[in-house]
Every structure is written in C-alpha cells, then in structure tokens.
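From the methods appendix. Each design record in this collection lists the tokenized structure first, followed by the designed amino acid sequence. Records were kept in a plain field format so they could be parsed without special tools. The example shown here is representative of the layout used throughout.

RECORD:
FOLD TOKENS (98 positions):
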C-alpha cells in the first residue's frame, strides 16, 4: 500500500483544486493513520479474503417488478395534444437559465 504523507496529501489537494492549511493536512494525515490501522485490523480477520463482497447489507429479492413487454408507442400527435406549446414535434418549455 502506498504511504500517505503530507506531500501526497498536498499533491492530491492541488489536483482537486482546493487549498488546506498545514493544521488541516496534519488532521487529515491523522485520519488516514486511523483508517489504515482499521484496515489492518479487518485484514487480520480469519477468512476475510474468502468473503463475498456485499453491495447492499440485506439480501432482497425483487419480485414485484412487472415483465418488460414491448408495446406500440403513442402517436406523436396524441402525445402532444394537451401540451400548451409545441415546436418541431416537441414540447416547448420556457427558458430557465439566463
């Protein structure tokens, strides 16, 4: 694992385009030390490499979704008939960004 030091943190912050004080770098470095110690502890757990990674903490079966059955789309004139303003076959909306 790559060693994290103040210079590494300064390089990362420069690449991310933000500035930190020296005290903040020290605090962040202390946090990384804690994180790495926790990772070492987890690595010491017997059989941890054999565990299947989880993407969600619970096993859930999704049985309520309907089958995706293709059907005929609406005619464009039917789809746009209630739109207050139409232009080039699309709903025309007011400009929201100046």
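DESIGN:
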């Amino acid at each position: 694992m790559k060693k994290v030091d103040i210079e590494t943190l300064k390089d990362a912050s420069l690449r991310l385009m933000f500035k930190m004080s020296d005290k903040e770098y020290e605090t962040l470095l202390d946090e990384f030390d804690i994180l790495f110690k926790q990772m070492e502890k987890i690595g010491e757990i017997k059989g941890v490499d054999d565990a299947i990674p989880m993407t969600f903490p619970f096993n859930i079966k999704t049985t309520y979704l309907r089958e995706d059955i293709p059907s005929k789309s609406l005619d464009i004139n039917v789809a746009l008939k209630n739109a207050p303003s139409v232009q080039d076959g699309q709903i025309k909306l007011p400009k929201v960004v100046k």
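APPENDIX NOTE: Residues 16 and 96 are 30 Å apart (CA to CA).
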